[in-house]
Write a structure and sequence with these properties.
Layout: H1 6-15, H2 23-35, H3 38-54, E1 56-57, E2 64-65, H4 71-74, E3 82-86, H5 90-97, E4 104-107, H6 125-134, E5 140-144
Parallel strand pairs: 3-4, 3-5
Antiparallel strand pairs: 1-2
Length: about 160
């Protein structure tokens, strides 16, 4: 016999799919949403639906955007001489907050994780290499990655920038 009504159970189960959300937090969030004014809960649902329908990957840098190409790729003040390579799109905001970098970006879409079966084929590495070599002005890549302590990554992968 379920602890809650089926719609509440479904809501809790869906919330548990979010990163860092376990059973207790999912229950707290579900009951918060149920207590919220209907227009507030529906506004959240509409925002999620709107983001899922309108946000896509930039065809140039793989950043998330609602217009293609993204505003970083078409920005008139962006330097085409440097490409900063980041793991995920949200890493761009940390760099932009410094207000010191004015180059281009490239989002890999994750990190290498051989134990999870994620190799270079699953990341946007090929498009990065093609992009860097297509534009001779982009010959200075910058890497902006989180530190990985796994011994499997003690050396930088040699295939990212061959002959660069």
């Amino acid at each position: 016999m379920p602890d809650f009504a089926p719609p509440v159970e479904r809501l809790i189960d869906e919330l548990k799919h979010l990163p860092g959300i376990g059973q207790k937090t999912a229950q707290r969030l579900a009951f918060y949403l149920l207590r919220a004014a209907p227009e507030d809960a529906l506004a959240l649902a509409d925002a999620i639906r709107d983001a899922k329908e309108k946000i896509r990957a930039c065809s140039i840098c793989s950043n998330i955007t609602d217009s293609d190409p993204c505003f970083f790729c078409v920005g008139p003040t962006r330097s085409k001489k440097t490409i900063c390579v980041v793991e995920e799109a949200h890493n761009i905001m940390a760099i932009e907050k410094t207000r010191t970098y004015t180059g281009m970006y490239h989002v890999l879409g994750g990190s290498l994780s051989p134990l999870s079966g994620r190799g270079p084929e699953q990341l946007h590495i090929k498009s990065l290499i093609e992009r860097a070599w297509k534009s001779y002005s982009s010959r200075r890549p910058s890497m902006a990655f989180n530190m990985v302590t796994s011994s499997a990554y003690s050396k930088p992968p040699p295939f990212i920038f061959p002959n660069f």
